[in-house]
Amino acid sequence: PLLELKYSASPFGFAVVRAGGKKDVPLFNTAGSRLASLGYNALIFDCMFQDQYIEITSGIPANAVLYGLGESAPSTGLALRRDGIPYTLWTRDQAPEVPDVNNYGAHPFIMDFRPGGATHGVLLMNSNGIDVTLTPKKMQFRATGGILDLYFLAGPTPMGVMNQLTSIIGRPHMPPYWSLGLMHSKVGYMTVEYCDQVVTNYSRAQIPLETFITDNQYADAYMDFTFSDGYPQKAFRAFVDKLHAKGQRWAPIINPQIHIQPGYAAYESGIADNVFIKDISGKPFTGQLWAGAVHYPDYWANVTQRWWAKELADYHQKMPFDGLWIDMNEASNFCTGDVCYDNGKVHLSGPAAANGAPNVPPAGIFDPPYTINNNNTQVNITVKTISPAARYLDGELEYNRHNLYGLSTVISTRSILNSLIPKRSFLLTRSTFLGSGAYSAHWTGDTASTWADLRRSIANMLANGLAGNAFIGADICGFQHVATEELCSRWAAAGAWQPFSRNHHSTGFQEFYLRPTIRSLAQKVFPWRLRVLPYHYSTFYDAHTFGCSIMRPLFFSFPKDNTTALIHQQWMVGDAIMVAPILQEGVVSTSAYLPPGVWYDLYNHTAIDASAGGLNTTAQAGLADNPPVFVLGGNIVPLGPPGTNTTTALRAGNLTLLVAFPSA
Question: Where are the alpha helices (DSSP H) in 205-294?
Answer without folding.
Answer: 233-245, 265-273
